[in-house]
Design goal:
This protein is of the alpha+beta class. It contains 7 helices and 6 strands, in the order ββααβββαααβαα.
């Protein structure tokens, strides 16, 4: 099931809605993952990833997200939860939110202004609590979707690759050269001969 759901506008990262479990104990246990989800969402808003659908592994859980109509829908699932159902959940969420609030989602200025979206989230979430219902088993058996083609990354790799993708290639190459020279004895190309560390001199 979706333990945590976050919905944000991609263009500026504005939080549109979120949903936690009703239990305070469960909610407190998810605060760390909410913080990590915020980091992922911030990177998506800073520089939209090439893939509009993705799975991001974190501990024994997985963030799955889709980007549709300029909005990112992301939810946290246990690692063993079927990915196919996870993405069906996100697709249903996008469909109902877009149908009810589509134009408004791009014009509001205040975070979490669409609090009623939480009712949509909770209603759809209940449909995916039990993976063995006839409806969910039918979705698992149905073809199409090519779920195996959706990329998966560890959260650290995703955050690093997002930062790297925002740096021009010539800058990355320059930094690699600098690191190599520093490893070889501090021969920074920007330093003069007299400024460079002298190795092997007492």
């Amino acid at each position: 099931m979706a333990k945590l759901t976050l919905i944000r506008r991609v263009s500026d990262g504005l939080p549109l809605a979120q949903s936690f479990p009703p239990s305070k104990e469960e909610k407190d246990g998810l605060l760390f993952y909410r913080e990590q989800g915020d980091l992922v969402m911030a990177e998506i808003s800073r520089r939209a990833p090439e893939a509009s659908r993705m799975s991001i592994r974190i501990d024994h859980h997985c963030f799955n997200f889709i980007i549709e109509d300029g909005v990112c829908y992301m939810a946290l699932f246990d690692a063993y939860y079927p990915r196919k159902l996870a993405f069906h959940y996100l697709e249903d969420l996008h469909r109902d939110c877009h149908n009810s609030y589509g134009p408004v989602m791009h014009t509001i200025a205040n975070p979490h202004a669409l609090s009623r979206i939480e009712f949509i989230i909770n209603g759809i979430r209940k449909l995916y609590l039990d993976t063995r219902t006839q409806a969910n088993l039918a979705k698992l058996k149905a073809g199409g979707g090519q779920i195996q083609e959706i990329p998966t990354q560890d959260i650290s790799d995703f955050l690093f690759s997002q930062k790297e993708s925002g740096i021009p290639s010539f800058v990355r190459e320059r930094e690699r050269e600098r690191d190599c020279l520093a490893f070889e004895g501090g021969n920074d190309p920007d330093l003069t001969r007299d400024q460079r560390p002298q190795l092997g001199v007492a």
